[in-house]
Amino acid sequence: MVNLRNSSTVTEFILVGFEDSSPSTRALLFVLFLALYSLAMAMNGLIIFITWTDPRLSSPMYFFLGHLSLLDVSFITTIIPQMLIHLVVKNHTVSFVSCMTQMYLVFCVGVAECILLAFMAYDRYVAICHPLSYAQIMSQQVCVRLVGTAWFFGFINGIFLEYMSFRNPFCKDNHIENFFCEAPIVIALSCGDSQFSLRMIFADAIMVLLSLMLLIVTSYIGILASVLSRASSTGRGKTFSTCASHLTVVIFLYTSAMFSYMNPRSTHGPDKDKPFSLLYTIISPMCSPIIYSFRNKEMKGAMARALGRSSLTR
Predict the structure, then answer these.
(1) Do 66 and 52 touch, CB atoms closer than 8 A?
(2) DSSP assignment of 96-147, as one string?
(3) How many CB atoms lie under 10 A from the CB of residue 111?
(4) For residue 263, is it left (φ>0), alpha (ψ between -120 and 50) or beta?
(5) What confidence category does residue 5 fall into, taking pLDDT thresholds of 50, 70 and 90?
(6) What is the CATH number of domain 11-297?
(7) Which of 20, 99, 100, 300 is the most buried (most CB within 10 A)?
(8) Where are the domains positioned within the chain?
(9) To the nearest whole number, what is the mean pLDDT of the chain?
(10) Chain centroid offset of residue 21 CA
(11) How far apart are CA 225 and CA 290, in angstroms?
């Protein structure tokens, strides 16, 4: 029998993505995605700057928000610049190593962001349900450890998912029906038992996403019970407004991640995969800072102060 591990002949992949689109469509998409990428980078960059420099935003919520924006910047920079290049050049190939690197960074940053969003839900729970003990429970040391845990587990989980994605050799088709190296699509191109790798990634997604969702749901059940039992109507509105921003971001990210990694591949196809891929690679990182900024008076005030200082220094 042929040893599959020694029969790998694929040294590069071809990202089909928008290859079948007309030149005018690709030009329009380039302008659109470049504008969205620039907006996401500017908004997230501004949030990182003000949450790390403005002393009025020194609470744990803004500490987590700054790191969430850092993760968003890392995530979109891993994917979007390459996609923009492929929209204007005819060569859509990426090396085997580049594909592996991109996939690992997507795994690492994506898992870390999901974990951080769960910790942000817990932070809101402590702030609303245990306000007198909030400073002690969510101390700076605890916040740093929580963020470090999100990053560390993202790195470790990324190694496991990377191994499962590339454990088999690639000696068949090298055309990826997407605009980046998405794991389920790449695994389907491998030789050998690709179903085992897909099942392991599916199990990992269930374990990670559902356990984090359990923490988020538990936190919000506690918040809802506390608010309904003691808050005034004005206080309820303010609390729900704060939580709505976080829940909106969670729904964006978790829905697209669950569709991509927790659905059978038989239900997928290029027309179904690409919209969800765009949702969590571009739309979610762009919407996160906008949602948090426009629904938070402190954020809007800090942004106005930061933009005012920059205009004065010109």
Answers:
(1) yes
(2) HHHHHHHHHHHHHHHHHHHHHHHHHHHHHHHHHH-GGGHHHHT-HHHHHHHH
(3) 26
(4) beta
(5) very low
(6) 1.20.1070.10
(7) 99
(8) 11-297
(9) 82
(10) 27
(11) 28
For residues 30 and 84, the answer to whether their CB atoms sit within 8 Å is yes
Coil, strand, or helix at residue 34? helix
Phi, psi torsion values for 12, nearest 5 degrees: -155, 160
- Cα separation, 101 vs 103, in Å, equals 5
| Look-up of token digits 């987590």 | 64
And the tokens for 163? 């191994």
Q: Angle CA(301)–CA(313)–CA(286) in degrees, nearest 5?
A: 45
Percent of the chain with pLDDT over 70: 84
102 — pLDDT class (breaks 50, 70, 90) = very high
pLDDT for residue 7 is more than 60: no
pLDDT digits (tens, 9 = 90+) for 49-91: 888 888 888 889 889 999 999 999 999 999 999 999 988 888 8
Q: Are 17 and 91 in contact (CB under 8 A)?
A: no
Question: Of 292, 289, 314, 307, nearest to 72 (Cα)?
Answer: 289
Backbone angles phi, psi at 137, to 5 degrees: -70, -45
In tens, the pLDDT along 16-62 reads 877 777 888 889 999 999 998 998 898 899 889 888 888 888 889 88
Beta strand 93-95 pairing with 175-176: unpaired
Radius of gyration of the chain (CA): 21
Which of 154-173 are b and which e, b meaning 16 or more Cβ less than 10 Å from the residue's Cβ? beebbeebbebbbbbbbbee
